[in-house]
Amino acid sequence: MPYSVRQSHRAPAITTPIAPDPALPRVCVIGAGSSGLAAVKALYTGGIPFDCYEKGPVVGGNWVFGNPNGQSACYQTLEINTSCPRMAFSDFPMPAHYPQYARHDQVADYFEAYLDHFRLRDQITFSTTVTAVTRADDATWRVSISGPDGDAVIEYDAVIVANGHHWDPRWPDPVYPGTFDGEQMHAHDYRSASQLEGRDVVVVGSGNSALDIATEAGRVARSTHLSQRRGQWVLRKYLLGVPADQVALPGWVPWWVTSARLRLAAMLSGNVAELGLPTPGHRPGQSHPVQSDGIRDALRSGKVQPRPGIARLDGGSVEFVDGTRVSADLVVWATGYRVTFPFLDPALIAAEDNDLPLWKRTIHPDLPGLYFVGLLQPIGAVMPLAEAQSAWIAEHVSGRYVAPPRDEIRRQMLADHQRNRRQFYTSARHTMEVDFDHYLWDLGRERRRGARRARRVPA
């Protein structure tokens, strides 16, 4: 059944510690955000020995407002763009009293409850940074850490990278010509309306953060202009009174059916180009969905003025490609993020232009023992996919799953990568795009195949 309509029941709480099996490979998990938590739970309940290192003192990553790890982009008005049933882990539904689209603080509380329910808190080493991960000659992994007790280098059989991909701001490159006398900041550093109040603001971007910040600026700033080079289809969160994403499809349906559903949602939502934003140059479904219920009213009322792309910065003003010019003392660049791994040598692995092909967005065929969790951009929420990835990795590490030959892995990886290139327009934003329901169905199918292969392996 589609994930959104599958009944979700809370698993029993873990009350007795689970002892790891010392005969199994030892694993390192990097990060305790939503994806890292999924990995920790899969390894812990699977009896696999592991260490998890979290740079900050709390779990939850990007959903923690003012996270002491210094990497969260959370702002005061942030709420989820995927409804709670579609975002929650499969065995731990969000509380029934939550709104359909939870606030960031509610999501952070949910992760804390998940942590305690499954007895995971003691499995995480907090305030510890992974500074380097290197491949040893014997195919193991050396992980260098730095924490309150000093530095250390520890050897592991496998490493799970769960450091997230919304923490390293991507600024315009090349920079726009001219100079600017006001303040420039990336959306990653936006926290509250107080940073916008009484100012002449230009917000640059067409994603969810850009629309959220522009809407808030329209409420408190002296003037607000939203600059977009490329138009987007902006979907409403509710259609016919229910969360739009609750109308889900079986994962096995072909992509054109999902694309048709997104086109219908766009049609029912209305084209924001009628309010002055650029006309999208692509069909709905050819880009990552953008959702906003507030931007329409802000544009319609004139509180937010639509503008095309920037041509140049000029002292106390910004000039756009259509020749218009506005006064500005703050430019907010909502221009996305770079996918980086500061602990991995780029000569070993890197995501140039955010492009890093992986098998099922998890495994690199040339680097056995190195796994990635949450390094995808779904049409839906990351958490259930990270949960499925983590369960798959635990099966792989414990020997309950056996992968197909490496040439078959490469063939599938290339086919998936080429399919994504056909389905979405070319941009750094779409290099990791997956269809939520299809991904879960496809990975579940591979896990079953791998389990059958494992049963055929002689003892």
Overview of this protein structure:
This protein is an alpha/beta fold. The protein folds into 2 domains: 3-167 and 337-456, FAD/NAD(P)-binding domain; 178-333, FAD/NAD(P)-binding domain (3-Layer(bba) Sandwich). It has 9 helices and 23 strands. The protein has helices at residues 34-45, 84-87, 104-117, 208-220, 255-269, 295-301, 383-398, 406-423, 436-456; strands at 27-30, 50-53, 124-125, 129-135, 141-147, 150-156, 158-161, 178-180, 183-186, 200-204, 223-227, 234-235, 238-239, 242-243, 290-291, 305-307, 310-315, 317-320, 325-327, 330-333, 370-372, 377-379, 433-435. Strands 3-2-1-7-21 form a 5-stranded parallel sheet, with helices on one face. The protein has a 5-stranded parallel sheet with strand order 9-20-10-11-16, with helices on one face. β5 and β6 (150-156) form a beta hairpin. α1 runs parallel beside α7 (383-398) and α7 (383-398) packs parallel to α9 (436-456). The protein is globular, with a radius of gyration of 23 Å. Mean pLDDT is 93; it is low at 1-7.
List the helices and strands and how they pair.
Layout: E1 27-30, H1 34-45, E2 50-53, H2 84-87, H3 104-117, E3 124-125, E4 129-135, E5 141-147, E6 150-156, E7 158-161, E8 178-180, E9 183-186, E10 200-204, H4 208-220, E11 223-227, E12 234-235, E13 238-239, E14 242-243, H5 255-269, E15 290-291, H6 295-301, E16 305-307, E17 310-315, E18 317-320, E19 325-327, E20 330-333, E21 370-372, E22 377-379, H7 383-398, H8 406-423, E23 433-435, H9 436-456
Parallel strand pairs: 1-2, 1-7, 2-3, 7-21, 8-17, 9-20, 10-11, 10-20, 11-16, 12-15, 22-23
Antiparallel strand pairs: 4-5, 5-6, 13-14, 17-18, 18-19
Helix pairs in contact: 1-7, 7-9
